[in-house]
Design brief:
Blueprint: E1 2-6, E2 13-17, E3 27-37, H1 39-45, E4 59-60, E5 64-71, E6 82-85, E7 88-90, H2 96-99, E8 111-114, E9 118-119, E10 126-130, E11 134-136, H3 148-164, E12 174-178, H4 182-195, E13 199-204, H5 211-218, E14 222-225, H6 234-237, E15 241-246, H7 251-260, E16 261-269, H8 282-291, E17 295-298, H9 304-316, H10 319-325, E18 326-331, E19 347-351
Parallel strand pairs: 8-9, 12-13, 12-15, 13-14, 15-16, 16-17, 18-19
Antiparallel strand pairs: 1-2, 1-4, 3-5, 3-10, 3-19, 5-6, 6-11, 7-8
The structure holds NADP nicotinamide-adenine-dinucleotide phosphate, beta-D-glucopyranose (BGC) and zinc ion.
């Protein structure tokens, strides 16, 4: 079967031939429909994140997949059922994090991530998975099922942000998304359409005309250009906000988030930056967090419950949004196009098969 893989040091994905996998007991065989591409895939391709499976010389990419059960292999899944796989698997033997259904909270060494860290991904015509890591999706949403994984990332982030403010009466009225990439924009749509935050802002560094700024406008949010209004100046120019969601991977934003927050606000960090040394006024940062009851937290990955919520959220996103958000779905003969970045690209996917 065809698969898309990257060999370390090459910096580009290639089409490779692999044997079709056989499902082990407890696993189903899934025929892949579509697999999305995100910033993490680009980081893996560039060699800035991730690791090869043990003994392998290349990594099959892809962690945002949707497929259809081809062989249920004695599991409770039904052949023809549409499914989205979760990303993490136990590193060797299972452990308490997986036993509790909280693989997203497992520390390094206890997990692998399919298509990212130590395990082949889903960019292949078929993949196998234990049934507990396959989440059902209605057929009508299957064409967009590759959005479930990124949405699940934000489901977890919101859950943790809200949990951090659960000791008092907290109802966010304003939210700021840092980053107009795919994760930032889908999160903005969730804040607007699902969380119903009154006022939203999204930070980028693009010039108009730009399709991401059009989406920001159409969502009813305010576009903030970081070249004109750096994050610490947002309270002065606009307002201080109850919730900041960082999706730039720009390390300074982690600290600047605290300046953009209103008292009692929470900042959630998602970006995965490279090491970068710079000066920070630690005293002011510490003082702000304490004297204004602010919280700053990091979050990674998501568990099955977040995927289930994400399926529901996907069904609530307006069609006009997903139509403009997904800028390209490419067949295997033109798979390279799915990895292009540029002014007109927001979210892309590779199509391995059709319904
Ligand atoms: P992406 O497409 O690379 O998006 C990043 C966006 O941030 C880009 O639009 C970029 O703008 C913008 N940006 C970067 N620096 C900026 C600055 N100084 N001012 C204004 N805008 C800036 O990546 P993505 O897929 O949306 O993911 C976003 C980040 O989240 C990545 O770091 C990724 O690794 C991480 N991530 C984490 C998780 C998790 O579980 N924690 C899950 C998924 C992704 P330009 O395009 O103009 O440079
Ligand atoms: C994936 C997560 C993963 C994270 C770190 C993200 O792009 O969506 O599932 O945990 O990267 O590798
Ligand atoms: Zn991802």
């Amino acid at each position: 079967m065809n698969a898309i893989a990257v060999e370390p040091g090459t910096g580009e994905p290639v089409l490779v031939e692999m044997p079709r996998p056989d499902p082990a007991p407890g696993e189903a065989l899934v025929r892949t429909l579509r697999v999305g591409v995100d910033g993490t895939d680009h980081e893996v391709i560039a060699g800035r994140h991730g690791a090869l499976p043990e003994g392998a010389t290349r990594l099959v990419l892809g962690h945002e997949a949707v497929g259809v059960v081809e062989d249920s292999n004695g599991t409770d899944l039904e052949e023809g059922e549409f499914v989205v796989p979760t990303v993490r698997r136990p590193a060797a033997v299972s452990n308490e994090y997986f036993d509790r259904g909280e693989p997203d909270m497992a520390p390094d060494g206890k997990y692998v991530e399919r298509g990212i860290v130590g395990a082949h991904g889903f960019m292949a015509e078929y993949f196998t998975s234990p049934e507990e890591y396959l989440v059902s999706i209605p057929e009508r949403f299957a064409p967009l099922g590759f959005l479930v994984e990124p949405i699940s990332i934000t489901e977890k982030a919101i859950e943790h942000a809200v949990a951090s403010r659960s000791a008092f009466d907290w109802e966010p009225e304003s939210a700021l998304v840092l980053g107009n990439g795919a994760l930032g924009l889908v999160t903005l749509a969730m804040f607007e359409a699902v969380l119903d935050v009154d006022r939203t802002y999204c930070l980028g560094r693009s010039d108009r005309p730009d399709p991401t700024i059009d989406l920001i406008d159409e969502l009813g949010a305010t576009y903030v250009d970081s070249r004109e209004t750096p994050v610490p100046e947002i309270p002065e120019v606009h307002e201080s906000v109850d919730l900041v969601y960082e999706a730039t991977g720009h390390a300074k934003h982690a600290f600047e988030t605290v300046d953009a927050l209103a008292p009692n606000g929470v900042g959630v960090l998602l970006g995965v930056p490279e090491p970068w040394e710079f000066e920070v006024d630690g005293g002011s940062l510490h003082r702000e967090l304490v004297l204004h009851n602010k919280a700053l937290l990091g979050t990674v990955n998501s568990h099955r419950g977040h995927f289930e919520s994400a399926v529901d959220t996907l069904s609530q996103l307006p069609t006009w949004f997903t139509d403009e958000f997904v800028t390209g779905v490419y067949g295997l003969e033109e798979f390279e196009d799915a990895f292009e970045t540029g002014d007109n690209v927001i979210k892309t996917a590779v199509e391995f098969g059709t319904i």
